Amino acid sequence: EEKVNEKKADTKATKTLQIGDQAPEFAIKDSNGKLIKLADLTKKGPVLVRLTCGCSGCDKELAYFQTLHEAYKGKGLTSLAIFREPDKKVEAYVKQKNLQMLYAVDTKGESWKVFATKSMPSNFLIEKGGKVRSIATGCDPSGLLANNVSKFVAELLETEKVDVQKQTNAEKTAAAKTTPAKKVEKKDDSK
Predict the structure, then answer these.
(1) Which pTM does this prediction carry?
(2) What's the pLDDT tens digit per position in 94-108?
(3) Among 114, 118, 16, which Cα is nearest to 104's?
(4) CA-to-CA distance for 90 and 161, rounded, in angstroms?
(5) Chain centroid to CA 30: how far?
(6) How would you classify the pairing of strands 122-126 and 132-137?
(7) In this model, does residue 184 exceed pLDDT 60?
(8) Could you give phi then psi for residue 147, rounded to 5 degrees?
């Protein structure tokens, strides 16, 4: 009977994180074992925490968040992607995608508990100083969600907004045009 009451108390204690709240105390080790502390990152500037996986939807959406990261990193944004898959899978995925942001692995999903979300993916934009500025959840392979986050990042950094949706789509189109078509060779069996 006591265990049931403890569980109820724990459930009530878990508060949904909302815009304007102070970000939770959070630390995670990166793939090299180095401890990343959210509080240290937010002392320097805004931080985008992306709780994600490598499913096809998150995979398609990643390109937009990579563009967002590249567009604002020189202006003070730090991006941190936290993956739910096993280390080895993430390591290969990061190399394949040429991921240029901080990343960590959380196979147990503790990060989702700390940020009080069950959504995959979840994106938390945290201001310098630690206040939550924007929360964007759910998968959007079209890039619209990343583009909305870009607006908030630009406001925080007091810079011009980058249309990450348009930029990423243009890059994808250019890459498709420069990628040579695979030749299909037929074997000549008449000889």
Answers:
(1) 0.82
(2) 899 989 899 999 999
(3) 114
(4) 30
(5) 14
(6) antiparallel
(7) no
(8) -65, -40
d(CA 58, CA 75): 25
The structure tokens listed for 134 are 């924007």
Which SS3 state, helix, strand or coil, does residue 29 take? strand
**66: Cβ–Cβ under 8 A, 6 or more apart, which residues?**
97, 99, 100, 101, 168
- How far are the Cα atoms of 60, 114, 161, 175 from residue 53, in angstroms, in the given order? 11, 17, 27, 24
Give strand pairing partners of 83.
52, 105
Structure tokens given for 61: 């959406």
Please name the residues in contact with 180: beta carbons below 8 A apart, sequence gap of 6 or more.
none
Residue with tokens 């630009």: 154
pLDDT at 31: 80
Structure tokens at 171: 């890059």
Report H helices in 14-142.
Answer: 38-44, 56-72, 87-97, 110-114
CA distances from 22 to 91, 129, 131, 188 (A): 31, 9, 4, 69
